[in-house]
Amino acid sequence: MSEKKFSKQHEWLTVDGEIATIGITKHATEMLGDIVFVELPEKGKNVEKDGHAGVVESTKAASDIYIPISGEITEGNQSIVDNPSAVNKDPEGGAWFFKMKIKNKSDLDSLMSKADYDKFVTENPN
Amino acid sequence: MQTQKTILYNFHKNLGAKFVPFAGYEMPIQYKDGIVKEHISTRESAGFFDVSHMGQLFLSGDKALENSLEKIIPLDLKEIKLNQSKYSFLINNKGGVIDDLIITRTEKGFNIILNAACKENDIKEIVKCLKPEHKYDLKNDLSLIAIQGPKSESILESIVCGVNKLKFMNGNHFQFENKRIYITRSGYTGEDGFEVSITNSKAESFTKLLVEKGVKPIGLGARDTLRLEAGLCLYGHDLNENINPIQANLKWAISKRRREEGGFNGWENIREDLKNGASKIRVGIKPLGRIIAREGTKIFSSNGEEIGVITSGTFGPSVNSSVAMGYVKSEFSKINNKILLGVRGKKHDAAVSELPFYKKSYVK
Looking at the domain assignment, is residue B42 inside a domain? Predict the structure, then answer.
């Protein structure tokens, strides 16, 4: 599995062959507060880079989940639908959101490394 | 207008508060624990809320003060005993709610607790009803600290002896570090609790003691989830100048004598709705799916007719489900009536629900 990459919309992504696993970052969960509902994209759905698929509802607000790359959704993480608070506890581990089949590997080039993302967050705290 | 701070601003900051602008004040929305934990702490133990942004208006005068205030407040003020508190409203000429409030009889007249966003305008409206000999004073030298939750009595009793004798919606004077403070047994969370009116110079030392005794700081976020579970209205959302108390399903907050005799602003409209029922009415709403119906969400009947709008909606941590309130056409207001909510382009199942969502535990 690849090192984690990050988007400006605060998603993280790892790659294993053709499949990417996507979740939201710890920083995102800190901004959202307590997550109470998660709506995931349907399996088999084709999604475009920067489009949105799914929603996170926290006690404060509803936030769209953005898709960092184009491709087809292959699996959603039902455990976070059943237990949304897991996203606050382990956002960059067990509480991944969905897996997808990567359409264009070149989409990955626009994503940030951990160091670049941390810098991005420091410069754009909100 | 420059944003104001309460006297406890730095104290909140040191407790890890995140601030948001609210009604012209920088107020804590949450602390380190976050909204859900703060909510649960209040329900299971005790939490404190800095509500010093709210207006503490003191009115003094002779017997005629009651008559003057009864023009704008639909309570039987003659019936309110010394140190007794009542929930009610200021009413405009159309019967709409200018603000909701808690009024308490004092030795010299009345004390009214007003919403922060409304207090300046409220005073203008109240003054219109007063006689020249009536005096009014919006006290900026007082802070207001609410302590809410099942442990609030025992903890507050250990700081201020005698508060355990207070009955719900009653107050009295007490002593704290040689200063006179005024405490009422009241609050807005659906829990037993107290509101402490205290001189600004003692607010921090008092609150510090609460924290040392295990009372958690609670921000506006949890204040909102707590009051919504308790079925209580938030002014500017569930109540406004175009909604009358009958529509708001708050008929009980108009005293019996006033419901019969009227004699207050907007009486014609209110009498009409008392007699024939309001055309729209506030109800509790439970979304059945995994959605939150936030303010502004449209409400539809099961056959798709638009019948109303959500005025407050959140996730209720103690009832562990989505909860909301809104106004629907009266014919759709029956408990358990199936309705639909338009959220993100889809219509989601919901039901009209009894209020409160969470059962109160007040000490009578």
Answer: yes
Residues B49, B144, single domain; the answer is yes
Residue B126 lies in a domain: no
- Do the chains contact at A33 and B225, CB–CB below 8 Å? no
Tell me what ipTM this predicted complex has.
0.83
CA B55 – CA B60 distance, rounded (Å):
16
Distance from CA of B221 to the nearest CA of A (A): 7
The fraction of chain B above a pLDDT of 70, given in percent, is: 98
Distance from CA of A94 to the nearest CA of B (A): 21
Query: Does residue B26 sit in the same domain as residue B149?
Result: yes
Determine the structural domain holding residue A30 and report its residue range.
Answer: 5-104
* Over residues A12-22, mean pLDDT: 96
Q: How many domains does chain A have?
A: 1
Q: Both ends of chain B: CA-CA distance in Å? A: 42
Range of the domain at B326: 279-364
Residues B29 and B146 in one domain: yes
Distance separating alpha carbons of residues B265 and B70, to the nearest angstrom? 9
User: Vertex A53, ends B338 and A59: CA angle to 5°?
Assistant: 60
Which chain A residues touch B292 with a CB distance below 8 Å? 36-37, 57, 62
What residues of B are in contact with residue A85 (Cβ under 8 Å)?
Answer: 36
- Asked if the C-beta of B292 comes within 8 angstroms of chain A's C-beta atoms, the answer is yes
Check residue A61 and give its pLDDT: 87
**Alpha-helical regions (H) of chain B:** 9-14, 35-44, 64-70, 119-129, 152-159, 200-212, 220-229, 256-261, 267-276
Look at residue B1 and tell me whether its pLDDT is greater than 70: no
Among candidates B29, B225, B292 on the partner chain, residue whose Cβ is nearest the Cβ of A57: B292
Q: Which residues of B touch A81 (CB under 8 A)?
A: 290
Ramachandran angles phi, psi of B287, nearest 5°: -65, 140
What mean pLDDT comes out for the span B79-85?
97
Residue B352 in contact with residue B337, Cβ under 8 Å?
A: yes
Tokens standing for B186?
A: 């009241």
- B215/B350 same-domain check: no
Chain B CB contacts of A33 under 8 Å are 30, 34-35, 221
Shared-domain flag, residues B49 and B149: yes
The amino acid occupying position B222 is: A
Residue tagged 């649960």 (tokens): B40
CB contacts < 8 A, A to B, total: 44
B314 close to A (CB below 8 A)? yes
pLDDT tens per residue, range B168-214: 999 999 999 999 999 999 999 999 999 999 999 999 999 999 999 99
A15 within some domain: yes
CA-based nearest residue in chain A for residue B322: A36
